[in-house]
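DM from R.C. (forwarded with permission)

"hey, sorry to bug you on a friday — could you get me a structure for this? deadline for the figure draft is monday and I only need the backbone to look sensible"
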Amino acid sequence: MLFYKIEFESEKALESGDRQSRRVRSRLKALTADANARTKGMIAFFISDFEDRNVSIGAALFVDAVLMNRRDLAEAFEEFRTRTRLKGKILDTREITAGEFSRMLNLADRNDYIDDDDDYKTDFGMAFIDACTESECEEVLLDAPCTKSEAIAEAKRLLCGASLIPEIERIFDERSPDRFQGNPVHYVIVSDDPQVRRSVRELLLRSLLQRGRLMGRRYCTLTRSVSGGLLECLYEDKLKELYQSQLGCALAITFSLEDSGEESGHADASFELVASVASRIREFRRGTLTILEMGRSESKLYEQLMEELHGLTFVRLDEELVFTREARGYLRRLAAKNGIEDCRSLVKSLPREESGYLGTDLNKLFDRWYDSYLRTELHPQYRELSAEAESRVKKPKGDAYKDLMEMPGLRSVKEVILQAIDFHRAQKLFAGRGIGTERPSMHMVFAGNPGTAKTTVARLMARIMKDNGLLSAGGLVEVGRSDLVGKYVGWTAPLVKKKFKAAKGSVLFIDEAYSLVEDRDGLYGDEAINTIVQEMENARDETVVVFAGYPDRMREFVERNPGLRSRVAFHVDFPDYTADELMEILRLVVKKKSRALGAEAEERVRSLLESALNTPDFGNGRFVRNLVERAMMRQASRLVRLPADKTTDAELKALLAEDFVPDVQAAESHRRIVGFH
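My reply, with the result:
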């Protein structure tokens, strides 16, 4: 949908005096309603404000109608002006956002040029535009369209030429029509740098606008996190409306992975999100252009989306990998753009990287250098103050740190992360004073039984490190033996290097790491370990490797691999939870599920937990989650047998003692294993 503001100069000023003014407004309201009734479903106008001779008029073009007959705005406005008997001339016409259009409608309501702004939206079937003003959304108006040569030059400057230039060539192909007739393809932009993603997005859209493949300059962005929380509010009720509002325009959806607080919740939430988004992309594929944006480490999410969207064509746009010469040129261009001619210290600060550089990395390097340059070179009087500010003791930033601190137990884990952040801050202090800095190896071993939150903590740790400047992306790449060990000679090393590349700026989580060196004929675990050791050293500044598994087997694994032992900085034990800690976890899980425990239920749960603690292969936090899920299923069976109209909200939320039962199947299975059957 397209929205416009028309500034009009009337030949006649609005009549003064309350009675005359009310009469004129009433007449204009009636004439506006009559004019819009004749073009309903195609285009709608309204007078927003009439002061002296200056008239502000809002216009909404319905894209479906435009697609049918290509109705011209100027022609339609001339009809509206004639029917409302407005005489004068147009001073300016500009495209506006849905938010500004809504504000103009509200002003029209207050000035009594329409009956009610909400009724106006409903009557014309445009109530969906309110979705654009949700807090998760941002409306943007593009700058002017760009020519093919301008687009290619900008793509090279952004270090995205390898993937973007071929698409620019396709966009400007003369065989394509020069007007909007639907979207032949959609796009995926992959980068860890939000600024890079935005720059690529806007260059792409300006090129499409130039070729008529977009009908307007307005587009909308939506940022969504994959977490354990339910997404039904936005994605079931609002996403369709958002797509409707963007017909003829574009919708950019940025994905980021966040921890759910439960080891099992991430996959479910990811599936829910992908399924919801994919269904809307398919529904509106011709009318609304979709741009999906995500970080480089979110490969699993990308694969999920592409699997759900099979049959639709998506063009993937990635940052280009450049090497030393091109990287230095890029840094010089950034310096020149900021008015700095002498940037030798910037160029010298470029770390040696044989595998190449991404624009994301170079942007961050420049930002750090420029911040230091401002306070030490341009304004040397602030050198000491800046260094002192860096030395102040503060709590780590971000919600992830708060979530970690709220988790029961895990004292040693929390201490390790605090040590890492403190060391990072110390290095910044050293740099501010001109003292040499270094970055320690942050690779770790997580040793603990199942359900002790190893994966959850790793995911939180990645986000904490990103929030506090230790990692650039902050994602979690989970791998096992099958992801790292090839079936044939020469396959293993490339597999390992591929996973390290995917985990750049993130945490690489190797689950049951000891399985890499288990004796299996025809497989190449030793090659995997040797390659991992090499890549750990190469990527020590940008990737944290976490080896995870059972305590005894992890100790044996590290001890028999000296190369690993010398590179693992921290060995973190995840002890089994006590009954009190499990009760605390259960209360948190119940709260997140919007349920409540009564006193009798608490006693019942504690009894079940204390009994389960003594059983072999106890699942710790996983046992607690399963216990709650079984209770919710029993609760559901109990509630559906009650009269719906007589059931209170408190009764709906309450988990009773009778809802909590032991896992009979697991207990029976154990008895069969240890006995004879």
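R.C.: lifesaver. Residues 227-234, 258-269, 665-677 have pLDDT under 50 and may be disordered.
me: no worries. The longest helix spans residues 411-432.
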